[in-house]
Design a protein that fits this description.
35% of the residues lie in helices and 19% in strands. It is α/β, with parallel strands linked by helices. It folds into two domains: 280 residues, Rossmann fold (3-Layer(aba) Sandwich); 188 residues, Glycogen Phosphorylase B (Rossmann fold, 3-Layer(aba) Sandwich). The radius of gyration is 23 Å and the shape is globular.
């Protein structure tokens, strides 16, 4: 395996830039990846400095924290404006990773991580510049600057322009840009180009975009980074197509030799039914009694009327088109009419999809439960209690819930796209090989077939037991992924 070669990898100095990190501030998978990747890199002996905003909603309760003495009372220029900031640091729970929290109330003292505010680009340009200038003040010369999604995508350009003069700190630095979701590119009006400076000439920016009245941070990350990664091998292929590239496919094809996909890992310290702190009953592959007891407990908690033998379908998701919610109205009502099953969903998002979920609950009382919002405890509870986990995504860069589901003995029903295709193999009852139910076409017919198939197999105890056991034997731990990043970093450092 590739990761085994990393045992001999030299120690790297890594500056990691991210808009969010779990558990301090998180909206989705980026927060989980930032936390897990930094922790595992540190465990492998690398010097990791993580820079993230101190958001107004950042939760540092119970975490060791302190001001960074050398990083107080600072300022950074973005465009023509100066922004004052301090840097606090907090230790990630259960690790030795100290996260550098950039405290700039002028841009981060707001009740959100992301928004459509007119100065959204300024907020994250401030973070990016502050992180690079903190490296200078600390005398920290990174081998790698690893930036994530559009929020920090200007870092590779800044390293080649505004900060290129500092050869002592950045002379040997190489940049990695990771695309977690190409559907969110951070496109702004061309007037925002002035804010990319100082030290960046207008000629360094993408001229065709400017000519069309816009500036795209993600495009600049793709163009200027030494390496571009995304979060699964299949997604790396999909984003190089017109259908999956959302207007950036030509840029990615032009850089095909520098683009790779590394499947995200799962932190089994947090997602493991044998030790999960949120579960009333623990279990593992050798004894699934606890899973049945969790299901009964969830039925009681949510007032779902059914015997424990009735199959439970679960979803934990953002309610957006990307997640395949468009397919549900044509499938779930009829399925619930025709089959004896139950459905539990947790999530929030677009109003039309929330209305559908509420209406479905009203139409099938005691059989459908929808929790609007997010609860970490309930997310874990659903993973443990459900028999089937539904992810019918239009596209899915990586996805984590399908990998959580496999560990929890919950059979994933997924569409063949992105990380779902890389982590779930369609089960063949004749050979006993496979880990879930996979459908191809993004349409109601494909989803209906997949759910019907899963429910049919649930009715065959021997088949279902084999399917569940296959999934629980999979290993998607970061231990099996971290070496791919190490190898990439080392290849870049060698030139």
């Amino acid at each position: 395996m590739l990761w085994q070669t990393s045992v001999l990898m030299p120690r790297q100095r890594i500056c990691f830039l991210t808009a969010e990190i779990s558990p301090f501030a998180k909206t989705g998978g980026l927060g989980d990846v930032a936390s897990a990747l930094s922790r595992h890199l540190l465990l492998r002996g690398h010097d990791v400095r993580v820079f993230v905003p101190l958001h107004a909603l950042s939760d540092l309760q119970g975490c060791e924290q302190r001001p960074v003495a050398a990083l107080q009372g600072l300022s950074v220029r973005v465009g023509t404006n100066e922004y004052r900031y301090d840097v606090q640091e907090a230790r990630l729970p259960g690790s030795d990773v100290w996260v550098q929290l950039v405290d700039c109330p002028a841009v981060f003292d707001r009740p959100f991580i992301y928004s459509d505010a007119h100065d959204e680009h300024v907020r994250y340009l401030m973070l990016t510049r502050a992180a690079l200038e903190c490296c200078q003040r600390l005398g920290f010369a990174p081998d790698i600057v690893h930036c994530n999604d559009w929020h920090t995508a200007f870092a590779p350009l800044l390293l080649r322009t505004a900060y290129a003069w500092d050869t002592q700190i950045f002379g040997a630095t190489r940049s990695v840009f990771t695309i977690h979701n190409i559907g969110y590119q951070g496109v702004f009006s061309a007037s925002a180009a002035a804010d990319v400076g100082p030290g960046v000439s207008i000629e360094a920016l993408h001229q065709a975009d400017l000519g069309h009245g816009r500036i795209n941070p993600m495009r600049h990350g793709i163009l200027y980074a030494d390496a571009v990664t995304t979060v699964s091998p299949t997604y790396a292929q999909e984003i190089r197509t017109p259908e999956g590239g959302y207007g950036l496919d030509a840029d990615l094809r032009a850089r095909r030799d520098s683009v790779s996909g590394i499947l995200n890992g799962v932190d089994y310290d947090d997602w493991n039914p044998a030790i999960d702190r949120y579960l009333p009953f623990h279990y593992d592959a050798s004894d699934l009694t606890g899973k049945a007891r969790n299901k009964a407990a969830l039925f009681d908690l949510l007032r779902i009327h059914a015997a424990a033998s009735v199959p439970l379908i679960g979803m934990v998701t953002r309610l957006t088109r990307q997640k395949g919610i468009d397919l549900l109205p044509d499938v779930l009502p009829k399925l619930l009419q025709e089959r004896d099953c139950r459905f539990v969903a947790l999530g929030s998002g677009e109003a039309q999809y929330e209305r559908f979920m509420h209406d479905l609950q009203q139409r099938f009382p005691g059989r459908v439960v929808f929790y609007s919002g997010y609860s970490e405890e309930l997310a874990h509870f659903i993973e443990a209690a459900a028999d089937i986990f539904l992810m019918p995504s239009l596209y899915e860069p990586c996805g984590l819930n399908q990998m959580y589901s496999l560990k929890y003995g919950t059979v994933p029903v997924v569409r063949r796209t992105g990380g779902l295709a890389d982590s779930v193999q369609h089960f063949d009852p004749t050979t006993g090989q496979g880990t879930g139910v996979v459908f191809n076409d993004f349409d109601a017919g494909g989803l209906r077939w997949a759910l019907q198939t899963a429910l049919d197999w649930y009715g065959w105890p021997g088949v279902w037991q084999r399917l569940v056991q296959n999934g629980m034997q999979q290993d998607f731990s970061w231990d099996a992924r971290i070496g791919e990043y190490e190898l990439l970093y080392e290849q870049l450092s060698r030139g």
